[in-house]
Amino acid sequence: MDQIPLSATVDGVSAVCIRDGAFLLVERGREPSKGWLAFPGGRREEDETPQDAAIRELYEETGIVATGVSYLTTVTFDYSTPEFPSPKPFRLAVFLAHDPTGEAVAADDAAAVHWLRVDEMAAFDVTESVLEVAYDLASSFES
């Protein structure tokens, strides 16, 4: 597993929440990528650790509470990323949520929430980075 990113190098975060082999995805309610499905997440607030930001964003967008998170990877978006174009590199740290509790509801800037298995994601507009993380994690369930 990669080393936890330094706060100064992370612009945003996302939290991967898994229940019964299904991943919690939110439909983005605002640009960029309005209408696309992604893991709950958003920008890190000033003086907030990436881990705290992931837990906060998960709760704000879905009402799900996590006891902690583990770092998975960092994804960089830029002008060449079709689903999330950014004029300058945007670094998104991805975390796995621990012991998620609560019923998921769309809140904050999430238009809807979906619990989807990897094989169900193809029917939706799902970002490439989400699919990669989900495939990697799903293959670890099967091992």
TrEMBL record:
Its cofactor is Mg(2+). Keywords: Hydrolase. It comes from Phyllobacterium zundukense. Belongs to the Nudix hydrolase family. It comes from the Bacteria. Pfam families: NUDIX. The keyword Membrane does not apply. SUPFAM superfamilies: Nudix. GO terms for molecular function: hydrolase activity. InterPro entries: Nudix_hydrolase, NUDIX_hydrolase-like_dom_sf, NUDIX_hydrolase_CS, NUDIX_hydrolase_dom. Residues 8-138 form the Nudix hydrolase domain. This is DNA mismatch repair protein MutT.
